Prior knowledge:
Blueprint: H1 2-19, E1 25-31, E2 39-45, H2 57-64, E3 71-75, H3 85-98, E4 104-107, H4 117-129, E5 132-134, E6 138-144, E7 147-153, H5 164-167, E8 175-179, E9 196-199, H6 220-223, E10 229-233, E11 236-240, E12 258-265
Parallel strand pairs: 1-12, 2-3, 3-4, 4-5, 7-8, 8-9, 9-11
Antiparallel strand pairs: 2-12, 6-7, 10-11
Helix pairs in contact: 2-3
Amino acid sequence: xxxxxxxxxxISFLYKAKKNTIDVNVxxxxxxxxxxxxxxxxxxxxxxxxxxxxxxxxxxxxxxENKRVDLIALTGDFLDRSKxxxxxxxxxxxxxxxxxxxxxxxxLGNHDxxxxxxxxEKLIAVLNQNNCHVLQNESRTISVNGNNINIIxxxxxxxxxxxxxxxxxNIQPGKNIVLTHDPNIVLDMEQYPFDYxxxxxxxxxxICYPKAFHLVKMGRLPRKNIIKGLHRMHDAAFYISEGLGQxxxxxxxxxxxxxxxxxxSIS
Length: 267
């Protein structure tokens, strides 16, 4: 009898953990000033992990239906197998249909760099073909109502591909919005001002029991229990997405997939 009850408990637990992977949190982060005349909206998605994503492109389209944003930010870990590249395309089509005013910008994550060179080049090509500007230690400057916004893409920190100085080389006077995959990089950015930084990488722990102790090996931020949500560093705000997909076992415990809408002041 005990074995039967224990088995039922385990099955129930795993069922719930699997169900959590489709229970998406849609979060709204408003950092606007009360007296701000101009605001800027960003849709932030991270960690698609096409090998282990429970949210279909149709589900994503439904979640984003009738949403209007100025910019879409994608902060890496799209996939780690070349055969998964075609699976990503329907998701990118959904994002294109949102027609963000100032475009879609993306950086790569550690899992993307698992790909062999030819497959990585194919992934970047597919992103570009679907109107995603892939930033690898570089920036683009956009003008919004006469205000410069530097979109700064810093390459993956966890695989030693980050070059902060190069990323900032061509910025213009204005607001600095940083996209990167591994948020640990904020600890090295004291000399590089940013107004907002968005990242992913930790999946909110994915499996928390009750804390994500397994993330300790992933850097200084997890050791401070900074693994998701809004935080501040060097007098600036940064946000860590819980991501859309999963790695390893396709379950979540104490975490949820996330779609985040950010609203910022630009003047």
